[in-house]
From TrEMBL:
Transmembrane segments: 68-88, 150-168, 180-198, 223-244, 265-286, 322-339, 351-375, 381-399
GO term, biological process aspect, one: heme A biosynthetic process
Entry keyword annotation includes S-adenosyl-L-methionine: no
One Pfam family of this chain: COX15-CtaA
Molecular function as annotated in GO: heme A synthase activity; metal ion binding; oxidoreductase activity, acting on NAD(P)H, heme protein as acceptor
Organism: Austrofundulus limnaeus
Family annotation (InterPro entries): COX15/CtaA_fam, HemeA_Synthase_type2, Peptidase_S1_PA
Reactions catalysed: Fe(II)-heme o + 2 A + H2O = Fe(II)-heme a + 2 AH2
Keywords of the record: Heme biosynthesis, Iron, Membrane, Metal-binding, Oxidoreductase, Transmembrane, Transmembrane helix
Phylogenetic lineage: Eukaryota, Metazoa, Chordata, Craniata, Vertebrata
Cofactor(s) demanded: heme b
Protein name (Swiss-Prot/TrEMBL): Heme A synthase COX15
Pathway where it operates: Porphyrin-containing compound metabolism; heme A biosynthesis; heme A from heme O: step 1/1
Keyword Lipid metabolism: no
Amino acid sequence: MLLTSLRTTIFCGCRCVSKGFQQNCRSPQLRRWLLRRNHSTFTVETAAPSNPAAVVPNAATNRIVGRWLLGCSGLVVGAIVLGGVTRLTESGLSMVDWHLVKEMKPPQSEEEWQAEFSKYQQFPEFKILNHQMTLPEFKFIFYMEWGHRMWGRLVGLAYILPTVYFWRKGYFNRSMKGKVLGLCGFVFFQGLLGWYMVKSGLEEKPESHDIPRVSQYRLTAHLGSALLLYVASLWTGLTMLLPAHKLTETKRLIQLRRFAKGTGGLVFLTALSGAFVAGLDAGLVYNSFPKMAERWIPDDLLAFSPTIKNFFENPTTVQFDHRILGISSLAAVTGLYLFSRRMMLPKRAKVAISLLAAMAYTQVALGICTLLMYVPTPLAATHQSGSVALLSLAIWVLAELRKMPK
């Protein structure tokens, strides 16, 4: 410490002496030499460190986080599609227990399979609907539900483990930390809600002789929470990867943006109403289009009392509502497309809106074919997947039309 102070004092003193000598020196050559010496010494003295610490988060880390969120949203789509197939094959009630770790390994021996089958035989679905089911048939529906649950665990790990890693690396700012915590919390909630839904189909209902099924309310809540998780992940990922366009804020642009938000909300509501259709098997009630049994408005549309009950528990009303919402979504998307054609928009935004319109017509065609063909499983699963594709394109349109961050 003393040596350092002494060196600093000598250096400063010599520099002051050099400056004084330079001012009094009458030789031009010597004055220029002293000037160059002082300048080079000062440059070395004030030079910044050669390897400054990297600042995070930055553009590179944001791209990494954005791609991660898009990957997570893709896994959520897989869970939604697999859940739809599980519902269509009536496999969701095959696993009567819920264990976070224990059930990750399916039965291995014949004795284990017989024990699992025996547990299934104690519940209403076997007693009322599947009392003639064989063990090989049970294995099929068991593996369907098991695959759905394992995929859900994969989704959870895909959110939680990278969150811990990116957090420790400093990839998240304060706002992003709140978002990822919300997404991870939603994954846990989704898993609990899934078991709460399955539990409703395992309950004994002595007063009812209907086919055992999960509550349509819980099924809709389970699908709705999955769609919210997907939309939040997709939106956050897109806004981190796609730079916002420098759009001039005109009255027509503001109207287009509001129109796009309303259309996206209507598409979401239509997809959600499909859960009530699936939960009540409402697609098997009237299999004609555009009329329902030669009538525009069927006689049993409001057969239940009180009236509000029809919109959630009457299969006829549920199918009628889904038809109206589907046609309304198609009309809204068509209007959005025609309105956007009269405006100067970036190329990416035009492509997104055009694809949204094309998907809307494809989805309506899939829905009509599914209805007329009495809901075959492959076509119904494609129709359910189409609703997610349509919602994805609506989110992309909103991401392209968003305002520039200030």
